[in-house]
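Forwarding the complex inputs:
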Amino acid sequence: MTDSTGESLLDVVAAGLRAIGFIERSGIEPLEARPGHVVLRAPAEPNVNHFGTMYAGALYTLGECIGGALFRTSFDTTAWFPLVTGSTIRFTKIALGDITAEARLHEDEIARILSDAEATGKGSWDLEVPLLDSGGDVVATYTGHYQMRPMGSLT
Amino acid sequence: MTDSTGESLLDVVAAGLRAIGFIERSGIEPLEARPGHVVLRAPAEPNVNHFGTMYAGALYTLGECIGGALFRTSFDTTAWFPLVTGSTIRFTKIALGDITAEARLHEDEIARILSDAEATGKGSWDLEVPLLDSGGDVVATYTGHYQMRPMGSLT
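Prediction (whole assembly, two chains):
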């Protein structure tokens, strides 16, 4: 990624992931970050279970944290914060090697969420994220329900 | 826990958790382990997010790994292995401090799962696990779908 906006968002997303030690220890890092578009990778090594496949909790974490990463590329993080209210994950294939996840928020959806949040104090969105092995096969599908609220309103 | 069977099962469960580095790094450990009954604790410190509350991925991991822990107290781990096919987690309260999870498999259910596995090669069960703060309030509810299969049959 060579454009300065892209590089800056990549730094913003990487810093957001590092701010949570649990995520940092998993080695999850952004490969791409643009407004409303993020690609993350979870490396195999720190996340394998005793069968040598990626542990379910690591796959869940990869799916979950892309919600916060997308938030950082899409909204003013000095005014709003994201939270997850619930998630589902379905495991469909043995997860071998590094696993990647890609997610998008369309600009119309970003505008709708911001409008809802400004009107009601809460903006909600759902995110479905396929988790892929290096061959492009879906190893799991993560679905998360997210909200953003005004900074300082955590109760 | 003073009876020797209980102490031994506690060691078995602790060893099972330590076998997955991702879980070990979260500091999750068993408080109680009896046949068909496990209590686990996730300490706050390695698992907090940037708000000082327990990160969603840590809460998910606490719920998920109790399925494997219960398996170890209930079945012959030299003949069978467990896997998770899917899970859901609902977050209901800000998770402050250490969080505990308790789960049980009734002996009739253990017998049914083993019978299914011997007959078909797969024994399935669902597990609903409330995650509790130190005041006993539910901070999240984890639901997991588990299977056990004959050792060596992972495909």
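The first strand of chain B starts at residue 29 and ends at 34.
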